[in-house]
Design a protein that fits this description.
alpha+beta
Length: 73
């Protein structure tokens, strides 16, 4: 299942790259892409995963790298 989210307050391209790598390692994520220019996060979530739990893990990963960055749902 592909999900797309708008990111708020993503301030640097390096942080976007770190987020992408960190999110890709989360259990249940098949692929992740963070685009700094468009401020978008696109993830492919495994169909057998609990989507809300995976999204919570994504939010934690993002806040560890850039605390001010939030997912706009």
């Amino acid at each position: 299942m592909k999900k797309s989210f708008k990111l708020q307050d993503l301030d640097c391209a390096h942080c976007a790259s770190l987020m992408e790598n960190s999110i890709a390692k989360i259990s249940g994520i098949e692929s992740a892409s963070v685009n700094f220019m468009t401020q978008k996060l696109i993830v492919e979530i495994n169909d057998r995963s609990n989507v809300s739990t995976v999204i919570e893990k994504i939010e934690k990963a993002i806040s560890k790298i850039e605390p001010d960055c939030k997912i706009i749902k």
